[in-house]
Each structure stands twice: as structure tokens, then as C-alpha cells.
């Protein structure tokens, strides 16, 4: 009997706590030549109630998830007309300027440094007297921590991302270059040339855009060492619904938590974020159209926040099993 009573007491000690409603996963699209950022449900494509949110200045050149907030890189609007990095919560509320940029026409592209959590941003134009590099900002304060990369004078940094090897890959006008992820020292230049953008999926593959116009522009898949794996994961021709003339531009891409690539088509009548299933490179269609002024340029997948609904020993054991 005593053992049975103790069991009841132990069961009563495990409490279930109600949590706030879970926010759905979202996709953020930043606009070029506009002050709009559109936010959509990552599954249905429906616009969020606060979409589009309005930034103080236009030209969104990059998006990144820092903790539970979204950083938006703006090419203009900072001191002396230089760029800023602005911070928003996931409900679209403007939390103000997170960092003031120190060079002209920047920042372009944002990524988070593994281990430290600091934010790296590409310098798209420092001015005629100084070559472009990558700048680093403190994750807690947004303070400028200095130039991170060294060993290569780059020309117009367009994009950057960390690879599965822990190193930083940077795309400029010449191609994709690899830098030591901790020290910023150059390790290899021109891993891939004549390309635009760089991003890695969870499987460790590297993606970049090659070609120009609907006839040849496509997203290609590589190993981190530059070995071509798939020449065309998806093409501008497919994204633009068969457009054969005029201008198209694949400007950015990200990856959701269901094995899909989210691709921005910047121009054509089919502009917006499109979905491609990476297991077989099947094109799944337009997820969300760009309906604002200007053009979409950047994309960011923001996952559904993790929830902790159980406290006590039973909840902790459940969490350990799920790890």
C-alpha cells in the first residue's frame, strides 16, 4: 500500500503546463528597390497578418535568424548614407537598428558564425580605395568587431555561408572562395567561377547559380570542394513557367525543415518564392507570389518555435528520448 501511495504522489508531481499557441513556420522575402518585406506561411503560402512589413529604407540585401529574431540587411539608411542591419521579432514588430554598417552599399548577405554566434556580413562596396571583405558584428550588442576575412581582395561580395567543414564560403564577382571559419584566413580561391550566390543544405551540398537568362540560368549542386554533382537542380525556364525571352534572375535560396529548397525568382511574371523537393529535384510550384512594389531579392526560412509542454521527471525523460 505504501508503495502504491508513493507512486500516486510521484505521478502527481509530474505536471503538464499549457503553452502559448505555436507559431507556424514562415518564409520571409526581402525586397529590392522597395521598403517591403513579405512574410508567408511556409506550408500554405498564405500571407501573415502583418505582411508586408515596411522597413525604414529599401533594398533588403540579406536576411538571417538570430535567436528568435530576424535580422534584415538594408543597403541604405545608416550613418553617412551607409547601410544598416535592422531587427524584427517574428510577429513583424520593428525592434530598431541592430547594427550600423561602416561601408558604402553594404551589407549584402548575412550568416551566423558557428560557435560564437556572431553575425557576418558581406561588404558589397567599400569604396575605390579599399577592397571588399566580410565584416563581423557582436551577437549580443551589434557592435562592429572589425574585418573578418583576409588574404584575398574581393570584388563586390554577394553572398556567404558556412559549409559542413566549419569554414566560410564567400561569393564575389570572381566566384566562390573558402576562408577559415574561425580565423578568416583565405584557404582557397575560385572553387567555382562565373557563378552567383552560395548556400549549403543540411546534407552538406553547396548550391550556386550559373548561366544568365531563361535559356541557361539554373541552380547547380556541388560538393564543398567544387566538384559538380548536379548541373541543374532547377532552372529559370521552369521557375518562370516557360519564359523564353526577356530577363529572369534567381537571386537567393534557403532550405526548409522538410527537405525543400525555397528559391527566389527576382524577375518575370512568376516572381516570388518557389519550392523544389531536393530528394528528386522535383519542382513543386510557386509557394508565394511577390505582390509588393520592386522585386523580391532575399529569402529566409523561419522554423516553427520548439515547445516545452512537460515539466518534471517524465518530461525530462521524454526530451532525452527525443534527442
Short description:
The chain has 323 residues and is mainly β.
What is the topological layout?
Blueprint: H1 2-13, E1 26-32, E2 36-41, E3 53-54, E4 60-66, E5 69-74, E6 84-89, E7 94-100, E8 108-112, E9 119-122, E10 134-137, E11 144-147, E12 159-162, E13 168-171, E14 175-179, E15 186-193, E16 196-200, E17 206-210, E18 218-222, E19 228-235, H2 236-239, E20 250-255, E21 260-265, E22 272-277, E23 282-289, E24 295-302, H3 313-322
Antiparallel strand pairs: 1-2, 1-24, 2-3, 4-5, 5-6, 6-7, 8-9, 9-10, 10-11, 12-13, 13-14, 14-15, 16-17, 17-18, 18-19, 20-21, 21-22, 22-23
Strands ordered across the widest β-sheet: 3-2-1-24
Structural domains: how many: 1
Uncertain residue segments: 1-19, 307-323
Task: Give the averaged pLDDT, no decimals.
Answer: 86
Give the name of the CATH superfamily: TolB, C-terminal domain
Oligomer: single chain
CATH topology-level fold name: Neuraminidase
The appropriate CATH architecture is 6 Propeller
> How do the helices and strands follow one another from N- to C-terminus?
HEEEEEEEEEEEEEEEEEEEHEEEEEH
What share of residues is helical? under 10%
Number of strands: 24
Cα distance, first to last residue?
A: 36 Å
Write down the CATH class: Mainly Beta
Amino acid at each position: 500500500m505504501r508503495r502504491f501511495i508513493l507512486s500516486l504522489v510521484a505521478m502527481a508531481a509530474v505536471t503538464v503546463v499549457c503553452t502559448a499557441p505555436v507559431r507556424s513556420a514562415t518564409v520571409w522575402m526581402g525586397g529590392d528597390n522597395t521598403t517591403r518585406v513579405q512574410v508567408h506561411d511556409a506550408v500554405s503560402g498564405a500571407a501573415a497578418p502583418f505582411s508586408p512589413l515596411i522597413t525604414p529604407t529599401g533594398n533588403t540585401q540579406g536576411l538571417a535568424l538570430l535567436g528568435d529574431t530576424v535580422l534584415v540587411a538594408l543597403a541604405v539608411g545608416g550613418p553617412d548614407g551607409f547601410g544598416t542591419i535592422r531587427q524584427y521579432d517574428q510577429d513583424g514588430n520593428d525592434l530598431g537598428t541592430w547594427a550600423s554598417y561602416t561601408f558604402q552599399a553594404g551589407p549584402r548577405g548575412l550568416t551566423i558564425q558557428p560557435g560564437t554566434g556572431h553575425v557576418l556580413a558581406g561588404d558589397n562596396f567599400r569604396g575605390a580605395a579599399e577592397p571588399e571583405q566580410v565584416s563581423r558584428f557582436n551577437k549580443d550588442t551589434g557592435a562592429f568587431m572589425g574585418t573578418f576575412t583576409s588574404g584575398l581582395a574581393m570584388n563586390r561580395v554577394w553572398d556567404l555561408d558556412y559549409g559542413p567543414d566549419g569554414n566560410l564560403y564567400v561569393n564575389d564577382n570572381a566566384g566562390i572562395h573558402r576562408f577559415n571559419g574561425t580565423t578568416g584566413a583565405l584557404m582557397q580561391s575560385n572553387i567555382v567561377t562565373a557563378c552567383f550566390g552560395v548556400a549549403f543544405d543540411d546534407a552538406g551540398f553547396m548550391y550556386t547559380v550559373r548561366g544568365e537568362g531563361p535559356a541557361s540560368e539554373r541552380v547547380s549542386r556541388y560538393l564543398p570542394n567544387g566538384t559538380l554533382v548536379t548541373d541543374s537542380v532547377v532552372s529559370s525556364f521552369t521557375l518562370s513557367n516557360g519564359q523564353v525571352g526577356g530577363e529572369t534572375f534567381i537571386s537567393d535560396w534557403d532550405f526548409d525543415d522538410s527537405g525543400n529548397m525555397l528559391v527566389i525568382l527576382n524577375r518575370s511574371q512568376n516572381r516570388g518564392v518557389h519550392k523544389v523537393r531536393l530528394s528528386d529535384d522535383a519542382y513543386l510550384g510557386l509557394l508565394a507570389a511577390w505582390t509588393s512594389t520592386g522585386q523580391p531579392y532575399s529569402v529566409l526560412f523561419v522554423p516553427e518555435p520548439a515547445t516545452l509542454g512537460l515539466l518534471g521527471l517524465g518530461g525530462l525523460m521524454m526530451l532525452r528520448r527525443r534527442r
